[in-house]
Amino acid sequence: MKEASIAIVGAGLAGLTAARVFHEAGLDPLVLEASPRIGGRIESLQGEDGSYLGDLGPNWVWPPFQPVVQHWLDRLSLPVFDQYERGDAILDGFAPQPMQQPLPGQYGIARLVGGQAQFIQAMAKPLPDTAIQTDQPVTQVTARSDGRLAVHVNHAPAICAQRVVMAAPLRVIHERIALPDHLDPTLDQALRTTPTWMAAQAKAVIRYREPFWRGRGLSGRIASRTGPLFEVHDHTTSGGAPALFGFVATPYEAREPEALRRAIVAQLQRCFGQSAAHPLSVTLRDWATDPWICARADLTGPMEHPRVAPDVLRQGHLDDRLWFCAAETATQSPGLIEGALAAGEATARAVLKLDPRARIHHEAS
């Protein structure tokens, strides 16, 4: 059995933020990620040369209104640029033909230079090479007689840890990871009923040779009642690689990839004309097909932005040995980038208060 002072289940932004805070306090966290990559709901589209082409998960931050985001942007020296919103939008399905219409912008909306994966790379950079292990699906956490917890990984030796931080989506934890008995009875309900933000969403990045919409005085925005994209935005990179980004309205059970790509191009051609007929690529990311992001419960009912979750999700369990820190546990911007940063840092700080070694190291530094 392997040994770890702190095991973190999930290498999304919340889990990696917690890992970095632990590392800076002198502890050696072990991060276990079920999938082959790190980042969770943050994923970038990359060219063959590794260049950034777009975001397949979250796109935006709002630094003027998200102090935790601004704090970490400053700490990690990550630059942002304004989301392009100049010009009219296209309203699709509001009249017999698509029509141009000014739409109000969103003050403060910004994108990261190089994409949201810059958060992931920057958080993970100071961690030792052995600190993050991918392809490690956790199936169970059990309490040991010696007061520690055992983290059981499919087809691998269990990890014995002093404390465990669960940073995976809460509904995924509820459905796929067995937790110890004798937990607070309200915890199970909180895990089951807290929706995972955007978990069932599919997103599309459509790349072009030229940002033709800008030359026509358009913002690249589409608001549509007919779809398949119900919302489209300019997604040109800070380096000038032209692209559009859209949210898919098609129900998850009807998202046949090739048919959906054809329908997306047809919609963009309907809205923008012949210039949109021949994109360089149409990349789809259907998060509903990712079993470590989207739980079965996230596929039923309307998409719902997570409210502030019950306090039981921000408390220690099993004598403060078991903690939760998914983005949806945050008290501010739950489910968003800010929520992930806030939850990861707050959970790590709470755990550090319980560890004399970390407290001594932190005070000495």
TrEMBL record:
It comes from the Bacteria. The keyword rRNA processing does not apply. Residues 13-84, 110-352 form the Amine oxidase domain. SUPFAM superfamilies: FAD-linked reductases, C-terminal domain, FAD/NAD(P)-binding domain. One of its GO terms (molecular function) is oxidoreductase activity. Keywords: Oxidoreductase. Belongs to the flavin monoamine oxidase family. This is NAD(P)/FAD-dependent oxidoreductase. It comes from Spiribacter pallidus.
